Every structure is written in structure tokens, then in C-alpha cells.
Amino acid sequence: MSTDYQRARVELGRRLRELRDECPGGRLTGTDLAQVLGWPQSKVSKLENGRQTPTDGDLLAWAEAVGQPSAYPELRARLKGFESHIRSWRRQLAGGHAPVQEMWNSLTSGAEIKRSMSSAAVSGLLQTADYARYVFQAHAALQGAPRDTDAAVRARMKRQEWLYRPGKRLDLLMHESVLWARICPPEVLAAQLDRLLGVVGMDTLRMGILPLDADISLTLGNSFTILDDRLVAVEEWHAELWLDDAETIALYRRVWDTFAESAVFGTEAQQVIARVRRSLKV
User: Fold this and answer.
1) What per-residue string of b and e applies to 120-129 under the rule 16 or more CB within 10 Å gives b?
2) CATH 3.30.870 placement within the chain
3) What is the pLDDT along the chain (282 residues), one digit of tens a residue?
4) Contact predicate 270/205, CB 8 Å
5) CATH architecture assignment, domain 86-280
6) Three-class SS of residue 173?
7) Which CATH superfamily is domain 3-82 in?
8) How many helices, marked H, and strands, marked E, lie in the chain?
9) Beta bridge partners of residue 21, listed in sequence order
10) What are phi and psi of 121, to 5 degrees?
11) Contacts of range 180-187, beta carbons closer than 8 Å, 24 or more positions apart
12) Strand partners, 207
């Protein structure tokens, strides 16, 4: 998490500790409060030291337990102020794409399940090097970022090793329009589609395609990724949003599940990809 995000979480923890110390019935120790709430003492410590993000329910329970329920609206406002963590592309790309890719390599490494919805480009975990190169070049030009394309591509290819590690799984949904998008020359796109055809059936991959004519109950939104139901990363033009509150993560999980109901998998997904591939005549 960024310094700004962590600073806000630490400040909320300081406020929680302050409320505990100023309990109208007399100061409560962390152990006393944990007993009142029925929580492990470690949870009280993590919340007060900014090492865990509280839920709305945690804040309400805390305010009531320390005899200051009127403090809950303030606490909730503080939480809502930083639960949406905005990572500006301008700041992130100041040193080029490679450092951002290395950060994602580290973030992904510890994850067991990634659920992604791609509505703009093929998932980075399945991109060919040439396809990735065109993606990085286009976004570097848009953001006025340093051109470190080769280093960024190497970092992205390194992250793909995650797919071949035991216990990992990528649940991926892509809209068919992604397969048609000419964001690179036809021969590069053809090779990318061949790559997708080749990975259908991998043990660590469940890939679904939303056909152009599929009945969908939600409008398509921006691409997003859910890591182990602990973090959602949403791609905007100006920034990447990191969302880690339980309610929002659950919302994005429902969005993913809803689109999955309209997607085709396995052989049917392969047929959609193959149809687009044949159209290229390369």
C-alpha cells in the first residue's frame, strides 16, 4: 500500500486508541476491550497500529464498547476516505512501466487465486511478448512516461511463471471484443490468439469468453482483478484503484460471477477464439 494509504490507516488506529483511553467508564486496556468484543487481542493491536483495515461493523462495535457510539459516524467517514486507494498512473509511471510490473510480480507471487475481467486487452498473464510490447508503447505515449518497453515486457513475461506453479489458479473472463481489437498489427494479434488457443485446458486456468451476442444482465465496465478475495484492482485511464474493504470486494466478486454466467468456457471458448483467428487470414 502507498504511504498516503498507510498513513490514513495509522491515523484511524490512533483515533481508535484515543477512544479506548477516553472510555467514559474508565480507561480500557487492549486486553479488556478484546474481551468485551470477543475478539483476539491481536486484532485490537493490529487495528490500533494500522496493520489491519477495519470493517464498518468493527468500527461500530468499537465505538459502542468504549461507551462512545456517537463517534461511529466520524470513524466510518475516516474509513470511507481511504478504502478506495487511488494509484495515479502519472506517479506510478514516473520511472517507467518496468517498476510497476515488478511491483505486480511481487503482489501476485503470494496470491493463490486471481479472478480477472478483461474488457480492454488480453490479460497480462496470457500476453505474448510482442502483444505486450504494443500495449506498453501505447500507454507510455498516452501518459508521457519513460520508454522502458523491453524491461517492462521482461517483467511481465516473468510474472507468467506464476501460472505454472502448483496451487495457483487464474479465473479469467474476456469479452469477445478484446479478441478483435487491433491494438497491434494483424500478425501480432494472430500470434496472441494462437497463444490463447494453446492454453485452453491448462490445469491452472479457467478462461471464459463473453461472446458478442451473449445475453448479459450488466453493462460492461472497466477491467478489474481480484486477488484472493482480499484486494480488487480496477483500471481507470487516470489511475489504478486498489479496493480492500470487504463490501466492495464482495460486490466485484458478484460482478465477476454474474458475467461468468453468460460466458462460454472450454471447447466453446476455443471455438470463439478460433473464429476470430480465422478472420485475420494471417
Assistant:
1) ebbbbbbbbe
2) 86-280
3) 445 667 788 899 999 999 999 999 899 999 999 999 999 999 999 999 998 888 889 999 999 999 999 999 999 888 877 666 777 898 889 999 999 999 999 989 889 999 999 999 999 999 999 999 999 999 999 999 999 999 999 999 999 999 999 999 999 999 999 999 999 999 999 999 999 999 998 999 999 999 999 999 999 999 999 999 889 999 999 889 888 878 889 999 999 999 999 999 999 999 999 999 999 988
4) no
5) 2-Layer Sandwich (3.30)
6) strand
7) lambda repressor-like DNA-binding domains (1.10.260.40)
8) 13, 8
9) none
10) -150, 165
11) 180/276, 181/120, 181/121, 183/121, 183/134, 183/135, 183/138, 184/130, 184/131, 184/134, 184/135, 185/134, 186/280, 186/282, 187/282
12) 172
Q: What is the CA radius of gyration of the chain?
A: 22
Q: Scanning the structure block, which residue is given the C-alpha cell 490445469? A: 203
Query: Measuring CA to CA, how many Å separate 125 from each of 10, 98, 116, 162, 170?
Result: 34, 15, 10, 8, 9
Calpha distance 237→38 (Å, rounded): 44
* Alpha-carbon span 245 to 181, nearest angstrom: 33
User: Residue 93: is it exposed, middle or buried by C-beta count within 10 angstroms (0-12/13-18/19+)?
Assistant: buried
Q: CA torsion sign, 39 to 45 to 51 to 57?
A: positive
